[in-house]
Amino acid sequence: MVDWPEKEPPIRYDSDREKCALTSEKREEHDKPERRPPATTVPGHPELPTHEKEAGVIAIEFESSRNPSGAGCSNGKHAATPSLAMPRLATKKLRGIERAKYHARCKIARLLRLPRYGDAFVLLDRKTIAKVGNLANSKCKVRVQETRTMDYIANSTTIPVLRVYGVFIYRRCIHIVQELMPGDVLQDVWRFMTEEDKRSCMQQLRGYVDQLRSLEPPHPGRVEAVDGRGVIDSRLFPYEYGPFPNHEEFHRYIFHEYRVEPMKKMARKTWKTKFSHGDLGMHNIMWKDGRITAIIDWERSGWFPEYWEYTKVYAGCWSEFWEMYQQVMDRYPDELEVDDLMNGYFARV
Question: Quick one: where's region Disordered (predicted)?
């Protein structure tokens, strides 16, 4: 559940004399950003200044880059630079009626949560939903980076993703405000679907995965998120790690030194770098009227070795779905065996 404090942060004044002198008209002028202390970044969200997080309500306007081609490093080095031309995040403070309106919508949303999406989502109206994560929680699952990924996918492929309307910092929580896509979560309706619908679903999914795998990585061999930062794996979720300059360094990190023996199967292999959703399961696919209406939850996506999508699907799906998935997707049996062994290892740690 999201913590919804009842009181607003108090307005700070430089002195008692200034406090008495300020009128309601002057308070807005008094609260200008330049009067605040120098900004430091919020852990896990380098785009977000700490003092803005503490201020109460900040809006980050999401502007699509419309230029997903990406740009490499001119100096030949793979620094932690964005993987593509990123959308600009412009901050502004919500004031007056905007602030009151969003506050009211959030209070109403507590009574209108969508249980099919879990506690991380709140319904704002019939067509809008907010994905919410508490920045004070070190295990916050919501990252601004996810909005950049969705923008990149929307402008580079025909994969149905949710349209992002804005990103807010509201009472120490990050809110990704996005459209509410019609349909049901696939795992909720799978057992009621006909065999024809199931086969159609897998063919559609294959087409979307092919589109992801056809994207050109800006830094071949490098393991990174869409904006050049670190990635997330389910075994270490929600902590970010990397980026990694090559697949060897990536494997050395995630395949623990105590599991050297299974890694021998992968020691002499090389892989291409492909874009992966990272958590492509029945719980992240929306379905309605015989078609996939959206693929959601892109926070674990990024540029990975080509086998990554295959092994991540196996980690959390039903046996029937997995069997049908294997019939239409490229297989990586050795990599799957190693990944499965590592899942067991982390489960015991």
Answer: 1-51
Domain positions in the chain are 31-179, 184-348
Minimal CA–CA distance to 297: which of 165, 145, 172? 145
| 177-221: pLDDT as tens digits | 888 888 999 999 999 999 999 999 999 999 999 999 999 999 999
The CATH topology of domain 184-348 is Aminoglycoside 3'-phosphotransferase; Chain: A, domain 2 (3.90.1200)
| Cβ proximity of 217 and 225 under 8 Å | no
Give the global pTM. Answer: 0.72
Cβ neighbours, 10 Å, residue 136: 10
CA gap 253, 238 in Å, rounded: 16
Among 31, 28, 25, which Cα is nearest to 12's?
31
Range with top average pLDDT, 77-91, 155-169, 297-311, 316-330: 297-311
